[in-house]
Design goal:
Blueprint (H helix, E strand, L loop, with lengths): L6 H12 L14 E8 L15 E6 L5 E6 L4 E7 L3 E2 L9 E7 L2 E8 L5 E8 L3 E4 L12 E7 L5 E7 L2 E8 L2 E4 L4 E10 L5 E7 L4 E7 L2 E4 L8 E6 L5 E7 L2 E8 L3 E6 L6 E7 L5 E6 L8 E7 L3 E4 L10 E8 L5 E7 L2 E9 L4 H7 L16
Antiparallel strand pairs: 1-28, 2-3, 3-4, 4-5, 6-7, 7-8, 8-9, 10-11, 11-12, 12-13, 14-15, 15-16, 16-17, 18-19, 19-20, 20-21, 22-23, 23-24, 24-25, 26-27, 27-28
């Protein structure tokens, strides 16, 4: 019989853990933002008018405002620090491509091609002193042929992601040089997408009936966060309070949701006259960012949004002090309120950093630097 964490145990563990977490000052819900242009959006993430060589995809945003992603070079893509300065992160032996997925401090994680024919896919970790390093060392089941992807990490160096072996894809973690598969909710497959400062991991996993449910792992044990009445769900982000942002197929449609231990899962809905929403990122003030999508042709009309406890859902376009932009997706948000996004200006799709107009500490750090940007991050494997 498989055992899962009970909700009451979960509540006690989260409350006990986060009494020692520093309080984060809430970002005013009425704040305006300005745009920092990071470069032309790569074909994989552009809606209509993407770029060629030198175009970018963005995936990770650090607390100091550093942006990671990948730069597209037509025949290959390479992980890179994209802001405030551009630094190529390199590739693994035998491979041509690498893709950054997350950043904490000066450490970046992602995945890259490798192997004698460049046909294997391995998670990597990168720091400036060590360069890019393969997370698969040949000791796990299947050895170096196993497919693995590192999706996120925390400040303690806990890396999470997923690994494929023997026909299944499993959530996994790397810590202090050791690899560990994480259990699912009873089914065969799953993946881990985010981890908070206390080591709480979130993602999705299959149940015994093969449905994918949003999942939280505490000390290696899975808890089902699936909203009641939904058909499927996934968790995409978590914060230091243990709150979770994800997506679920509710009876009313496919919508973003917020989960808290006090309330459970709450449908976040869409903008008026829209039908779909996705939650991409979440910060420690509880702000969630993502996209709201209207019915229409491919690609359907979409607007980048944020959800706050004070204002609910808002289109980021309505909060910009920089004119001329339409933002169509929001990827990540940090505690300073900066948002990583994609938008269109003058008929061209571009990656952007949406920065609060007020002079916050993270912005002071960024203002010290002159910047050039190029970047492209490949869409998440299986996204």
């Amino acid at each position: 019989m498989q055992h899962y964490c009970s909700r009451w145990y979960l509540a006690g563990w989260i409350v006990g853990t986060f009494l020692v977490v520093d309080t984060v000052k809430a970002w005013p819900a009425s704040a305006l933002y300005h745009i920092i242009d990071l470069g032309v959006a790569a074909p994989a993430v552009a809606r209509t008018h993407g770029g060629g060589a030198g175009s970018v995809t963005v995936d990770g945003l650090a607390e100091d405002g550093t942006v990671v992603g990948s730069i597209y070079n037509v025949s290959s893509e390479q992980a890179a620090l994209l802001y405030p300065t551009v630094t190529m992160l390199g590739t693994l032996p035998g491979g041509m491509d690498s893709y950054a997925r997350g950043i904490s401090g000066g450490t970046v994680v992602g995945y890259a091609t490798t192997g004698p024919a460049g046909d294997h896919l391995h998670g990597f970790v990168w720091t400036a002193p060590t360069g890019i390093q393969d997370l698969i060392d040949g000791t796990m089941t299947g050895g170096p042929t196993v497919v693995s992807v590192a999706t996120a990490l925390n400040a303690s160096g806990l890396i999470v992601g997923f690994a494929a072996d023997a026909g299944t894809t499993k959530p996994c973690m790397w810590q202090a040089g050791h690899f560990q598969m994480l259990p699912t909710l009873g089914g065969a497959n799953g993946d881990a997408t985010a981890v908070n400062a206390a080591g709480i991991i979130v993602g999705e996993s299959q149940t015994v009936t093969h449905e994918f449910h949003a999942t939280m792992w505490i000390m290696g044990l899975p808890t089902d966060l699936h909203p009641p009445g939904a058909r499927l769900s996934t968790a995409n982000a978590t914060n230091s309070q243990g709150d979770v942002a994800g997506d679920a197929w509710f009876p009313t449609g496919f919508h973003a949701f917020r989960w808290t231990v006090q309330v459970g899962a709450e449908d976040l809905g869409t903008l008026p006259n829209h039908v779909i929403s996705h939650a991409r990122g979440m910060n420690n003030t509880g702000m969630i960012v993502g996209v709201s999508i209207a019915p229409g042709e491919d690609p359907p009309p979409a607007l980048a949004v944020r959800w706050t406890l004070e204002q609910g859902i808002e289109a980021l376009d309505t909060l910009l002090s920089t004119p001329g932009w339409t933002l169509y997706d929001a990827i990540a948000v940090n505690d300073a309120g900066a948002i990583l996004a994609y938008g269109t200006v003058n008929g061209q799709d571009r990656a952007v950093l949406v920065v609060p107009d007020d002079d916050l500490p993270a912005q002071k750090h960024r203002n010290k630097h002159q910047h050039k940007h190029r970047h492209i991050t490949v869409a998440r494997l299986g996204r």
